[in-house]
C-alpha cells in the first residue's frame, strides 16, 4: 500500500535538509568571502517560507509514524531498545534544532552585521549538521542499529 505519510516525510526532508545544504555549501561561503549579507539574507527570507512549513510537516508526519510504530507513548524515551533509542535521538535533534534556530532568529539576526557573520555562520552550519543527522537517524528505523 502507498505510504502517503512516509512520502510526505521524505518530501519535507528533501526541502529541510536540501535547503540547508545549499545554504551552507553555496550561499554561506559566498557571503563569507565577499562579506556581503544581502544574498544570504535574501535566501534566508525566501527559504523560511517553505522551510518552516517543511519542518512542521516533519514533526507531524514523524510523530504520526512513531505513534504507528510504537503506540505506547510512555515507552518512547529511553535507550533499552532500538526503536526507543531512535525516537529519543530524533526528538533530541528536534529540540537542538529549535534552540539553535530560535537563538539565530531572535538573538543573532536582528543585530546582524558583516562583523558578526562568523557567529551567524556557526548557527547555519549547526542546523545543517542537525538536518543531515535527522536523515541518518531516520534511515536507521528500517535497518536497526546493529
Ligand atoms: C527535519 C527533520 C527530519 C528529517 C530531515 C527526517 C528525515 C527522515 C528520513 C530521511 C527518514 C528515512 C525514511 C525511510 O527510511 O524510508 C525518516 C524516517 C523516520 N522519521 Fe524522520 N525526519 C525528521 C524529523 C522527524 C521527527 C521530528 C520524527 C518524530 C519524532 C521523525 C520520525 C521518523 C520515523 C518514525 C521514521 C521511520 C519511518 C519508517 O521507516 O517507516 N522524523 N526521517
UniProtKB/TrEMBL annotation:
InterPro entries for the chain: Cu-R_CopD_dom (IPR008457)
Segments traversing the membrane: 6-29, 50-67, 87-106, 118-141
The keyword Membrane is assigned to this record: yes
Keywords: Membrane, Transmembrane, Transmembrane helix
Taxonomy, superkingdom: Bacteria
Keyword Membrane: yes
Residue ranges of every copy of the Copper resistance protein D domain listed in the record: 42-137
A Pfam family reported for this protein in Swiss-Prot or TrEMBL: CopD
Gene Ontology CC annotation, any one: membrane
Protein name: Copper resistance protein D
Organism this protein belongs to: Psychrobacter pasteurii
